[in-house]
Amino acid sequence: MNTIRIYVACLASYNAGTLFGKWIDANQTAEEIHADISAMLRGSPVAGAEEWAVHDYEGFGEISLSEWPDISRVSVIARLLEEHGDAFSLWYTSQDGQNVDIEELEEKFLEQWQGAHDSKEAFADYLLESTGQLSELPEFARRYFNFESFARDLELSGDYSFVRANGQVYAFSSH
Fold it and tell me: What own/partner pairs with CB < 8 Å and gap ≥ 24 does 21-26 have?
């Protein structure tokens, strides 16, 4: 995965017509990010600079950041992206992760994440196999089971959602 970082600009410099800022590693604690922002502001060509804004970011996948994001949230998101990669980014954007409290982000993601599969049908097979329900069918009957219809029903019921990315189907539980 690419480096997860934010570009923080000094607004005093920006307002004075000078671009001044710093790329900051987002995969560190909020306190460390704030310390890096403070150090950048102290180095500003405009004396007494205090205000800053995020003018760019990299490595966040589909996740969008505002100019004035909650740095604690940025830190948690970066850590989860580092640990879980695209799965977390896709969950965050498709499952309304921006409205989940930062204290609950990881727990909620891990509750809902159902893995990356070759297809929705492959997920349906995995779900039935992992819950033991498929083993209850006699061997001869298994080949008649319609995984495509079952996967469609899982999605239409709202119990599961799927996001296709990187040649895989990422599955998420709504519970």
Answer: 21/52, 21/55, 26/57, 26/59, 26/60, 26/74, 26/75, 26/77, 26/78
State the pLDDT at residue 88. Answer: 97
pLDDT at res. 109 = 97
- pLDDT band with cut points at 50, 70 and 90 for residue 89: very high
Write down the pTM of the prediction: 0.88
Q: Is the dihedral of CA 114, 64, 60, 62 positive or negative?
A: positive
